[in-house]
Design goal:
Belongs to the sigma-70 factor family. ECF subfamily. By secondary structure, the chain is mainly α. The protein is built from 9 helices and 2 strands, in the order βααβααααααα. A two-stranded antiparallel ribbon has the order 1-2. The N and C termini lie far apart (40 Å). The relative contact order is 0.09.
């Protein structure tokens, strides 16, 4: 496989034993899967679950017949891993998994979460395609929730420069994202 490998255009087997394919799969799906998992468990637990899931796929040298099969397997595996996590003895006192299973098995809710996760994937891909510094500022400010002064301090920039990068980034994202993805990004920005 070449480094130009793209999941959205491939209808042939996907070999996660190939380092380039694995790396691109991880980068493409990590954040959307974390978003999806965080609807079942906490953010830190979601990140651990996703990292463990990818480690399992790497160790198994997982092969998927095509992109649709891979996406379905990833989301189903995440859901199952979250439920397993919640069923574990150390979490029994924190949540009634029967309620969670009933809620998460509802097709409408499940599909809604998948759609939101895919829109988040589109947002993350677009943010990653921005110029480097602009991408960092947008990610830190809008997706990680840092304020301008925190971003400026961490990146060694002035607050005005951070504001400029945010404005430029949003302008570029408006052109790159579908209407629904840009709307969701705006909702994320305003609800933080």
């Amino acid at each position: 496989m070449t480094s130009n490998y793209n999941h959205s255009t491939i209808d042939s087997p996907i070999y996660l034993s190939d380092m380039v394919v694995f790396d691109q799969t991880y980068k493409s799906y990590y954040h959307p899967l974390c978003f999806y998992a965080s609807k079942f468990v906490g953010r830190n637990e979601a990140e651990d679950i996703i990292e463990n899931l990818f480690l399992k796929f790497w160790n198994r040298k997982q092969v998927f017949k095509d992109t649709a099969h891979m996406q379905a397997s990833l989301y189903q595996s995440v859901r199952n891993a979250c439920l397993d996590f919640l069923r574990s003895p150390k979490n029994k006192n924190h949540i009634d998994t029967t309620i969670l299973e009933a809620q998460s098995s509802a097709t409408e809710n499940h599909l809604s979460l998948l759609i939101k996760a895919e829109v988040m994937a589109e947002i993350y891909r677009a943010v990653n395609d921005l110029p480097s510094q602009c991408s960092k500022v947008i990610r830190m400010g809008y997706l990680e929730g840092l304020n301008n002064s925190e971003i400026a301090k961490e990146l060694g920039l002035s607050e005005q420069t951070v504001k400029n990068y945010k404005g430029r980034g949003l302008s570029l994202l408006k052109d790159k994202l579908s209407g629904s993805a840009f709307t969701m990004l705006l909702l994320l920005i305003t609800w933080k």
